[in-house]
Design goal:
Layout lengths: L5 H11 L4 E2 L8 H10 L3 E2 L10 E8 L2 E8 L4 H9 L17 E4 L2 E4 L12 E3 L13 H8 L9 H13 L6 H7 L10 H17 L1
Parallel strand pairs: 3-7
Antiparallel strand pairs: 1-2, 3-4, 5-6, 5-7
Helix pairs in contact: 4-7, 5-7
The structure holds FE2/S2 (inorganic) cluster (FES) (2 copies).
The site of one FE2/S2 (inorganic) cluster has 11 residues, from loops.
């Protein structure tokens, strides 16, 4: 299946999911009836999920300095809006329950868990994701460079959230020493346990961020 990526496959299969036929016999039946029902009952059709207009919202988010018009269910999280509606997949979904920090982004410079933030709550606040952290000239942010310099990742899945959290941690004034960094970065889990390298990276970037 040349040209078929995992993303396009999932996207097309979720569309197809609406018309998948599931041959289920309903109610209680004798063995004979059950056999007949299984053989002859028409397949149950599952209708595509639809969002009633009353539950849809159409609004514009300021993401990485650009206006992004979205139409989403009122219950859609900022994380899903970024990834599924705007196409910014740098922000990662780990637990989707507010426990791992992989989804950390900034709202007006303050770190938030985008899996626990409804897109509709964001309003006029400026959203910054890992894609918007680098300078306009394309150079890496000092925190991104420090993570590279200190090898502060292995699989890299937690890294966007770690970096967004680390930038905010320094801005908050909570990065004076290793113990404080560990405390204020404790909401960001790393299953590869790259913690010593992450702390070293933050200590390196701290000075240049404060001078900027
Ligand atoms: S995905 Fe948001 S905290 Fe884990
Ligand atoms: S680098 Fe793998 S989870 Fe952090």
């Amino acid at each position: 299946m040349a040209g078929l990526t995992r993303r396009t496959f999932l996207s097309s299969s979720s569309t197809l999911g609406g018309v998948i036929a599931i041959p289920l016999a309903t109610g209680c039946a004798t063995g004979t009836e059950r056999g007949a029902a299984t053989a002859e009952a028409p397949p149950m059709q599952i209708e595509p999920a639809t969002v009633p207009p009353a539950q849809r919202l159409d609004f514009t988010l300021d993401v990485n300095g650009r206006p992004q018009r979205v139409t989403v269910d009122v219950r859609t999280t900022l994380l899903d809006t970024l990834r599924e509606h705007i196409g910014l997949t740098g922000t990662k979904k780990g637990c989707d329950q507010g426990q791992c920090g992989a989804c950390t982004v900034h709202l007006d410079g303050r770190r938030v868990l985008s899996c626990l933030t409804l897109a509709a709550q964001v309003g006029a606040r400026k959203v910054t994701t890992i894609e918007g952290l680098a300078g306009t000239g394309g150079g890496l942010h000092p925190m991104q460079q420090a993570f590279i310099d200190h090898d502060a990742f292995q699989c890299g899945y937690c890294t966007p959230g770690q970096i967004m959290s680390a930038v905010a941690c320094v801005a908050e004034g909570h990065a004076d020493d290793a113990a404080e960094i560990r405390e204020y970065m404790s909401g960001n889990l790393c299953r590869c346990a790259a913690y010593p390298n992450i702390v070293a990276a933050i200590e390196q970037a701290r000075g240049s961020i404060r001078r900027a």
